[in-house]
Design a protein that fits this description.
Blueprint (H helix, E strand, L loop, with lengths): L25 E5 L5 E6 L3 E6 L3 E7 L5 E5 L3 E5 L4 E9 L3 E6 L11 E4 L2 H14 L7 H21 L10 H13 L7 H8 L3 H12 L3 H19 L4 H7 L5 H12 L3 H6 L3
Antiparallel strand pairs: 1-8, 2-7, 3-6, 3-8, 4-5, 4-7, 6-9
Helix pairs in contact: 1-2, 4-5
Length: about 270
């Protein structure tokens, strides 16, 4: 399971160029009717109102990218902490995205798209009329619109709440951990872990997130770092061999992840234990 890569031409929400709404805790962006590539980490809960059909390849968190069409006059929801990468190749009218500093009360904790409903359709039509022209609405109008969108989204997510949150039993989680330990020196894919547990890939993603608070990718990386730390403490194995034994792509890859996740280099980790 390699480190995710980001194409050089991918950009964040700032590419859409709309300033903050002027209301505390709220920002919004609007896209035009042209293709775009978006790499976005949701620092706050985010709701997108889709004006027209958007054909994409979309990747959520650590999942593989997949074809996804965002239907006209629907909304999508992206919870705080989620990461999405969207390559939009066919865009008819674009979207507007609202970011909320205050968390949205909801049952869903995962990305959702193509959320419909009469109330949302009405608000999307209003937003299209006001935002697709040449002038910006005033901050008060945007505050009112965003509040109504918030209310409708809470209701929409509540209507879809009956989906039971996925669970991993203690035995199932230990089976997952054992598989990672037994294959720590090799490539571990999300599909491998799902096959080991006999569960759909989406269920494994959600169950690991619900149980540990971290993504499946992050769990595997942390276990690789744990194994590397143990070897650094207990052996004089060269760093390149430690990296290979723990499944890192290279010594540099291991060093980068140590610095990011543990706040030290492998050499410093080893020196601290001598």
């Amino acid at each position: 399971m390699g480190e995710p890569t980001i194409a050089e031409n991918w950009r964040g929400m700032e590419q859409f160029g709309v300033p903050p709404s002027g209301s505390p805790g709220l920002a919004y962006w609007r896209s035009g009717a042209k293709p775009y590539t978006l790499d976005y980490t949701a620092d706050s809960d985010t709701i997108c109102l889709v004006f027209g059909r958007i054909v994409t390849q979309t990747q959520y968190d650590d999942e593989p990218a997949r074809p996804l069409t965002f239907a006209p006059e629907t909304a999508s929801f992206h919870p705080r902490g989620s990461h999405l990468r969207v390559d939009a190749t066919n865009v008819t009218e674009g979207f507007v995205a609202f970011s909320y500093a205050q968390a949205i009360e909801r049952a869903a904790s995962h990305n959702r798209e193509n959320i419909g409903g009469e109330g949302l359709r009405h608000l999307i039509g209003y937003a299209r009329t006001r935002l697709m022209g040449g002038t910006h609405p005033d901050p008060w109008e945007m505050q009112c619109l965003s509040t109504l969108v918030h209310v409708e989204m809470v209701q929409a997510l509540s209507r879809t709440a009956p989906r039971r949150p996925p669970r991993l039993t203690d035995a199932g989680f230990e089976q997952l951990e054992a598989y990672i330990r037994d294959h720590i020196d090799s490539t571990i894919t999300c599909a491998d872990l799902a096959n080991e547990l006999g569960l759909p890939l989406r269920s494994v993603f959600d169950a690991v997130k619900a149980r540990t608070g971290q993504s499946l990718y992050r769990l595997v990386v942390e276990r690789r770092l744990d194994a590397a730390m143990q070897l650094l403490r207990e052996s004089d194995m060269p760093l390149c061999d430690v990296a290979a034994a723990c499944g890192f792509a290279s010594q540099q890859h291991m060093t980068t992840l140590f610095s990011q996740r543990r706040g030290m280099t492998p050499r410093h980790a080893r020196a601290g234990q001598k």
